[in-house]
Write a structure and sequence with these properties.
This protein is α+β, with helices and mostly antiparallel strands. Helix content is 32%, strand content 28%. It is built from 11 helices and 20 strands. Strands 10, 11, 12, 13, 14, 15, 16, 19 and 20 form a 9-stranded mixed sheet that branches. Strand 5 (166-176) and strand 6 (180-183) form a beta hairpin. The radius of gyration is 30 Å and the shape is elongated.
């Protein structure tokens, strides 16, 4: 048996060790020496979390290069921040790893203030050079819509950057005239790859959304500089209820061609007063944290003609009775409105009416009853009670008179319940006791209670 050459064996071991050390040095310089969290499996390979973190890191470097005014809008990541931030940060000190951005989902969502960024086509080229696949989705700009036209260049709505199976969604937020931010729906065109991303998992894009402008703070998440909403819980709540309905401009244009709007000085003055009153009511109820929606004729005007009905002579809003506040009357009085009447009681058919500059604000309170909701009405001279029944509905955001307001999402059902199938035909003669399609008689208030339940000022 030949003797083993110890020198050769030793040389082989030295070469093998050197190669291994060089590999470790390469890995350290490529991954570990950079700031941020790092996760190694027992085999020494990058884990899924590490790959996702690297993807986000590479995207944020690209965003910084092109000065994209981004903030983190990912609901899963923000939920971790809002619920478990302190404990997670304590753990990060002891054991750095991807705690917030790696949520177990193959998507990370960011929002972009579109009005603060000038579109740069070089971004897309640079992204491709860094290995990203990109899907760019555009749509019509609703800010250019009017009753005469709905045209203009398409604007970016969503960018999807994909790398190593992970997707970074960028949602474009545009400023609207009601001083809020809006994003469009994500709609794939016929020639687009429907397998590009797990679209059902996206936080944004199933429908347009509306948001108040969030205050942002710069923080460090998983070793990366990222802006986040200052009030995370509020932003997450907004995201859950952000569904926005655009006014039906084309239908409104057709309506006004058949029934031209009143342009008299009196009608213009009424519109000015209504706008002022609606904005005042929104501010007052916002301070009380009471949600409301456009109801009755005001809702019909928005739905039918993207405006108000000039001959209606009042403003109608709805509030669920569970949101009633005992200090509501005092708040409106402090805002400069006078109480005109108060009918009913919190338990049954409550209705408030205020007056401002000769324009009436009617507040109808809605009660849930099985699969329907209803609001009450009272005839002051007879004490008769009436009930107006609507199918259950949810609330969406809309815009009227440069104000972000809520409307029933199922607006057609809501309007049809109140005005029947002929809602699209103007009706100047209206009796609130008999004209509505959904009105029912509901008994009579006991005369002994009239002093408390029928108050006129």
């Amino acid at each position: 048996m030949p003797r083993v050459n110890r020198t050769a064996v030793l040389s082989l071991l030295i070469v093998s060790s050197s190669v291994f050390l060089l590999f470790q040095l390469y890995y350290y310089r490529k991954y570990v020496s950079k700031p941020g969290p790092h996760i190694l499996s027992q085999t020494g390979h990058l884990t899924a979390n590490d790959v996702q973190w690297q993807t986000v890191k590479k995207f944020l470097a690209l965003a910084q290069r092109f000065r994209l005014p981004l903030f983190l809008a990912d609901t899963a990541a923000l939920t971790l921040l809002s619920q478990d931030a302190l404990r997670q940060r304590d753990r990060l000190v002891r054991e750095p790893h991807c705690s917030f951005l790696c949520t177990g989902r193959p998507i990370t969502s960011f929002a972009l203030h579109a009005n603060l960024w000038k579109y740069d086509p070089g971004l897309l080229l640079a992204a491709q050079q860094k290995g990203f696949d990109l899907l760019e989705l555009r749509g019509e700009d609703p800010r250019l819509a009017s009753l005469d036209t709905l045209s203009g260049e398409e604007i970016p709505l969503h960018f999807l950057f994909r790398l190593h199976g992970y997707v970074v969604q960028v949602v474009f937020l545009y400023e609207r005239s009601g001083n809020y931010l809006w994003h469009g729906a994500l709609r794939l065109k016929a020639n687009m790859d429907r397998n590009f991303a797990p679209f059902k998992l996206l936080d944004y894009g199933r429908h347009p959304g509306a948001y108040d402008r969030p205050e942002l703070v710069l923080t460090v998440l998983d070793g990366l500089d990222i802006r986040i909403p200052h009030n995370i819980s509020r932003f997450l709540n907004e995201q859950q209820h952000a569904h926005f309905l655009e006014c039906r401009y084309r239908d409104a244009r057709n309506f006004l061609q058949l029934y031209p709007d009143d342009s008299s000085p009196e009608a213009l003055d009424f519109r000015r007063k209504v706008k002022s009153l609606l904005h005042l009511a929104a501010r007052t109820l916002s301070r009380l944290d009471v949600p409301f929606w456009l109801s009755s004729g005001t809702c019909l005007g928005w739905f039918r003609q993207c405006s108000i009905i000039s001959y209606s002579r009042d403003v109608d809003i709805g509030i669920f009775i569970v949101d009633f506040r005992a200090d509501m009357v005092a708040a409106f009085r402090d805002a400069g409105l006078s109480l005109k009447h108060k009918f009913g009681k919190v338990e049954d058919s409550l209705e408030l009416s205020f007056l401002s500059d000769d324009v009436k604000l009617d507040i109808f309170f809605f009660y849930a009853d099985g699969d329907v909701v209803w609001n009450g009405g009272t005839q002051a001279k007879s004490g008769k009670k009436f009930k107006y029944i609507f199918p259950r509905f949810s609330l969406c955001w809309a815009e009227l008179l440069e104000l972000k307001v809520r409307v029933p999402c199922e607006t057609l059902d809501y309007v049809t319940a109140n005005y029947g199938d002929t809602w699209s035909i103007p009706l100047r003669t209206w009796d609130w006791k008999t004209s509505p399609s959904n009105v029912q008689e509901n008994g009579v208030w006991p005369p002994a209670e009239w002093a408390e339940l029928i108050q006129i000022y």
